[in-house]
């Protein structure tokens, strides 16, 4: 019972924190320089990790599909099916897990350190709003960077699939790409982009909230980092389930409109 109460307390606190950030975004100005600085910082620090994650996700998906499709003599459709599965489900999820450990944990540790060393309180004492000066630039930077990093990771997954298709299944690049436009529909791409945006929002909200509410000195910072990693992964899985249903509804509506 205590666990359930604490769980709902954390969810409510995170949602109220998100509401405060959005209110600050709409009613107060944010320094453009600080936002672009955070975007560059997150992108620069995480690009290689995200690119490698996307590359190997595409390679793994290609191997798994190739093992099944060899039995039916349908390797010509390998590129389309592997790319569709990667774009719609597996790719955004696994790449978001990588970002949660890279970006989320770092941001939580950074903000948590600022909180326990009273830097955030000092900003408040100077008459400034910590949400506006410290949290909002990082929140926007994480969302923008994570969205494009996830999208870039999905593009890299296509190259990983192409190379693995050539090496593992003997499918050349042209054959691999031939059926991609036939199977990977605009709805599949839209579904992947929706997931990328939703995962970026979850990541930014959880890591900034956990960092901003850190207490207990150095040990508290460590607990916040661990809690950020765990909470982000759980929330991403839940959001994946939710956005999958939205994607199915959109797909049904598009098919009904076309018919």
Describe this structure in words.
By secondary structure, the chain is mainly α. It is 88% helix and 0% strand. The protein has 9 helices and no strands. It has helices spanning 2-27, 32-69, 78-116, 119-125, 130-168, 173-178, 180-183, 186-212, 217-258. Helix 1 (2-27) packs across helix 5, helix 3 packs antiparallel against helix 5 (130-168) and helix 8 runs antiparallel to helix 9. The longest helix is centred in the last third of the chain and has 42 residues, at 217-258. It is elongated, with a radius of gyration of 21 Å.
Summarize this structure briefly.
The protein has helices at residues 2-27, 32-69, 78-116, 119-125, 130-168, 173-178, 180-183, 186-212, 217-258. α2 (32-69) packs antiparallel against α3 (78-116), α3 packs antiparallel against α5 and α8 runs antiparallel to α9 (217-258). It has 9 helices and no strands.
Structural class: mainly alpha
Report the sheet-strand fraction: under 5%
Radius of gyration: 21 Å
Q: Round the mean pLDDT to the nearest integer and report it.
A: 83
Features:
259 residues, mainly alpha, 9 helices, 0% strand
Strands, helices and their partners?
Layout: H1 2-27, H2 32-69, H3 78-116, H4 119-125, H5 130-168, H6 173-178, H7 180-183, H8 186-212, H9 217-258
Helix pairs in contact: 1-5, 1-8, 2-3, 2-5, 3-5, 3-8, 3-9, 5-8, 8-9
């Amino acid at each position: 019972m205590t666990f359930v109460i604490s769980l709902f307390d954390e969810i409510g606190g995170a949602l109220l924190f998100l509401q405060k950030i959005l209110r600050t975004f709409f009613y107060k100005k944010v320094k453009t320089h600080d936002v672009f600085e955070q975007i560059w910082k997150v992108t620069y620090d995480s690009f290689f990790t995200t690119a490698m994650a996307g590359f190997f996700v595409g390679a793994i998906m290609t191997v798994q599909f190739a093992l099944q499709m060899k039995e039916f003599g349908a390797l010509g459709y390998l590129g389309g099916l592997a790319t569709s599965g990667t774009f719609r489900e597996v790719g955004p999820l696994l790449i978001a897990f990588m970002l949660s450990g890279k970006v989320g944990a770092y941001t939580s540790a950074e903000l948590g350190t600022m909180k326990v060393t009273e830097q955030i309180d000092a900003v408040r004492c100077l008459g400034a709003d910590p949400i506006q000066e410290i949290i909002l630039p990082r929140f926007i930077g994480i969302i923008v960077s994570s969205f494009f990093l996830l999208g870039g990771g999905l593009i890299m997954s296509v190259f990983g699939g192409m190379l693995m298709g050539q090496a593992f299944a003997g499918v050349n690049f042209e054959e691999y790409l031939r059926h991609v436009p036939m199977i990977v529909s605009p709805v599949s791409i839209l579904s992947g982009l929706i997931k990328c945006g939703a995962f970026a929002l979850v990541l930014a909200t959880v890591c900034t909230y956990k960092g901003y509410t850190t207490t207990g000195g150095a040990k508290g910072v460590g607990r916040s980092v661990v809690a950020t990693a765990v909470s982000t992964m759980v929330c991403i899985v839940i959001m994946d389930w939710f956005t999958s249903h939205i994607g199915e509804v959109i797909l049904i509506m598009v098919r009904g409109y076309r018919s």
